[in-house]
Specification:
Layout: H1 2-21, H2 26-50, H3 55-78, H4 99-120, H5 126-150
Amino acid sequence: MAGRTAGAAIGRVEVVVHAVLALGGRAEAGRRLGRVQHLEAGFYAEAERRGALSGELRELSQVVGEQERAHVAALERALGGARKSGRPEFDFGDATSDPQRFLAAALEVEELALAAVNGQVPNLTRRRIARAMGIASVEARHVGWVRDLAGR
């Protein structure tokens, strides 16, 4: 079931990316969306590589990381592969190896992503807003999961 949900979300990402880029701000919109998606994917990939998380934090990192990597791939397809050659690099310090810092950073990363998606809504047509809200709901579920783990 998670695979189907992730697949549906990826499809919505591609639709929203195309809708935003069709507004005429292709380069800047692509850079903004790309930075956020790469930030998320990179954060979780690094946490997985370091292997310092266990239990539900490890599960969060794996599940959400897989979804974020799929979002990056969808964005790259929508942009014609333009982002493949210029992936940003991030230094997460010990936020990906210390469970408490990971949790705090994950909350910030996910809230940023949700705000980024919501920030694009005014640029969309009414028809595209429903699809954008599908993406926002995925990011909101990520935020909810992290907040639950943090006891908030």
